[in-house]
Design a protein that fits this description.
Layout: E1 15-16, E2 21-24, E3 34-35, E4 39-42, E5 45-48, E6 52-57, E7 61-65, E8 78-86, E9 90-94, E10 101-104, E11 124-131, E12 139-141, E13 153-154, E14 159-162, H1 165-171, H2 178-186, E15 190-194, E16 198-202, H3 206-218, H4 224-238
Parallel strand pairs: 3-7
Antiparallel strand pairs: 1-6, 2-5, 4-5, 6-7, 8-9, 8-11, 9-10, 11-12, 11-13, 14-16, 15-16
Length: about 240
């Protein structure tokens, strides 16, 4: 597709639904535009074919980020998993994927047979996907690429809830997600986000945990401006 001038869709970062027209090509020439998932060209317009949030990456690629619950593991994903069973060599971990993941008992910094972690069923783990394909169970690690624990491992206390995978990616976006940026300016809290659609929040007070968690849950269909406005309203109620 060719266009005359760089034209940014007014719908970027907004929630779109099938039938929405995000660009009119009649106003554009001499510029290449790439279309990703959830979009199609219909004559001189670009239309939405699946509901989600419209995204744009440089130079000019548009796609719709679907708000789906289903998670397909990919290498280097960070995930929040729940231990569902223990074996001599592996912990079996639910990561909301098609099958349980294996977390080898030695996949921890300084791990040896003498200091294997003792995780009960139900333990929440923040881990990294190191192996993933369609015919084998995913494999996790609680170490970064250089063998350090970094932020990985067991998460204690706090509150855990599920989101769509699209919302999880938004929370992990760079630069910092405007929602988390606005909350961080006023509140003290810890957060761990898994690309598999799980979020863990901890804070010094239960009220802060509830506020941060509710703000995240409500932000699913909000754009950046609406997210900041919502946080201001929630903080006003807390004051």
């Amino acid at each position: 597709m060719e266009s005359k001038k760089p034209l940014r869709s007014a719908f970027v970062d907004d929630y779109v639904v099938p039938g929405d027209v995000i660009l009119d090509l009649a106003d554009m020439t001499n510029q290449t535009i790439k279309l990703g998932a959830g979009l199609r060209q219909d004559c001189d317009t670009i239309q939405v074919t699946s509901a989600g949030r419209l995204r744009l990456s440089k130079p000019n690629k548009y796609w719709v980020e679907n708000s789906q619950k289903r998670y397909i593991p990919s290498v280097e994903d960070t995930v929040l998993g729940i231990v569902v069973d223990t074996k001599p060599d592996n912990f079996l971990v639910d990561i909301k994927g098609p099958s349980v993941a294996f977390l080898p008992v030695l996949s921890f910094e300084g791990g040896t047979r003498r200091n294997i972690p003792k995780f009960e069923i139900g333990t929440l783990i923040y881990a990294r996907v190191v192996k993933a394909n369609s015919i084998m169970n995913p494999e996790l690690s609680c170490m970064d690429a250089i063998g350090k624990a970094a932020e990985f491992g067991q998460l204690k206390n706090g509150y855990t809830f599920e989101t769509s995978t699209g919302l999880a990616r938004m929370l992990l976006s760079s630069p910092t997600c405007p929602l988390l940026e606005a909350l961080g300016k006023k509140l003290s809290f810890e957060i761990a986000v898994g690309l598999n659609g799980r979020v863990w929040v901890n804070a010094p007070s239960p009220s802060n945990i509830i506020l941060v968690s509710e703000a995240i849950k409500q932000s699913e269909s909000f754009n950046r401006i609406q997210q900041r406005s919502m946080v201001e309203k929630l903080l006003a109620k807390l004051a």
